Amino acid sequence: MAFKRVGVMTGGGDCSGLNAVIRGITRAAIIQHGASVIGIEDGYDGLIFDRHQELTVRSTRDILPWGGTILGTTNKGNPFEYKEFDESGQIVTHDYSKKAIKNFQRLMLDCLFVIGGDGTLQIAHQLNELGVPVMGIPKTIDNDLEGTDYTFGFQTAVQVASDALDRLQTTGRSHQRIMILEVMGRTAGWIALEAGIAGGAHIILIPEIPYQLDKILDKIKVREAGGSPFSVIVVAEGAREVDGEMITSEAATTRLQAVAQLGGVGDYLARNISRRTDLEVRCTVLGHTQRGGTPNSFDRILGTRLGAFAVQAAAEGKFGNMVALRTPNLELVSLATLSGKVRHVPDSSQLIQCAEAIGISLGR
Ligand code: F6P
């Protein structure tokens, strides 16, 4: 099936490598198929409110190393349940899906490439069910999407976190302190686990394994007794104590937001460790530095491959799928099969076995 005009959009939280995908799609669609490419701006908002720009080989020429997304994004703006404020400041919900579909048709697009996480891809599936030919490209720094081995953006985030750990090692050792690094990872601990191994952390705490403070203190004491009165801890923002709750940051939570903002587990740990030891404790929160900035080469390559492969699949009319990495190949996975479940770090993970084998404590 030949196509003449395709749309591309990014939805949900940004991550490094989005522009590599946009560029890959644009170049493959133009070079292989002579198509024109329309960039939909600000996620589904651009489809609903008709905001777009033409993408060309020239306009995407320099974007490969850029962080963020040249198209803009939002993690609100579900066209089926669009929440906004009315004049009296109350939140109202509208179904703008028909409006979005009408704009898609008015733009005379043959396909919509949707680059996003589980929420964005589920909306893409709903649109597909209503007749919009979509092709999904999965992304999240958390690396917790089902159906794909790795998401682009993840390896860059791991690099940022392990670079930070390298720095915390030297200052922690100099001052004989406990250094805590809080990284992203709402419900899956992939970033903490991989960065912790790469950065030589002594304790790694992930959402999948609720931690016991006593076990953390034991590890710190053993290190101290062995002549290392400093320790480096990496904790995923969604980690929690056995019988405890995830810690949310109310200050960052707004009324239109569907999910609570996490944050504060690093400080919580710092307070509790310093109450129980004589060592000084310091906490660093990496936050959105893990999402911004230039993608590493792995994410540039993966993003470019996914873009080009998505175009090839669309040209074959294989809509309603997402492109996925099944190492070493790319494959198609039906959007209908995605359950929205998070791909957690399994307890049987060889990464966990490796961490524990080399003496890293997981707080259990
Ligand atoms: O899902 C990706 C993610 O980076 C999470 O790790 C984090 O909790 C969340 O997004 C932060 O979202 P926001 O950009 O809305 O603060």
Topology, pairings included?
Blueprint: E1 5-10, H1 18-33, E2 36-40, H2 44-48, E3 52-55, E4 82-85, E5 91-94, H3 97-106, E6 111-116, H4 118-129, E7 134-138, H5 154-175, E8 177-183, H6 190-198, E9 203-205, H7 213-225, E10 231-236, H8 265-276, E11 280-285, H9 297-315, E12 321-326, E13 329-334, H10 350-357
Helix pairs in contact: 1-9, 5-6
Bound molecules: 6-O-phosphono-beta-D-fructofuranose.
Please explain how this structure is put together.
A hairpin with a 5-residue loop joins strand 4 and strand 5 (91-94). This protein has helices at residues 18-33, 44-48, 97-106, 118-129, 154-175, 190-198, 213-225, 265-276, 297-315, 350-357, and strands at residues 5-10, 36-40, 52-55, 82-85, 91-94, 111-116, 134-138, 177-183, 203-205, 231-236, 280-285, 321-326, 329-334. It has 2 domains: 5-152 and 295-327, Rossmann fold (3-Layer(aba) Sandwich), CATH 3.40.50.450; 157-292 and 346-357, Rossmann fold. Helix 1 (18-33) packs parallel to helix 9. 49% of the residues are buried. It has 364 residues and is an alpha/beta fold. It has 10 helices and 13 strands. It binds 6-O-phosphono-beta-D-fructofuranose (F6P).
Q: How many beta-strand segments?
A: 13
Helix-strand category: alpha/beta
Largest sheet properties? 7 strands, mixed
The H-and-E topology, N to C, reads as EHEHEEEHEHEHEHEHEHEHEEH
**CATH architecture name of the largest domain:** 3-Layer(aba) Sandwich
* Strand arrangement, major sheet: 3-2-1-6-7-12-13
The third-level CATH topology of the largest domain is: Rossmann fold
Bound molecules: 6-O-phosphono-beta-D-fructofuranose
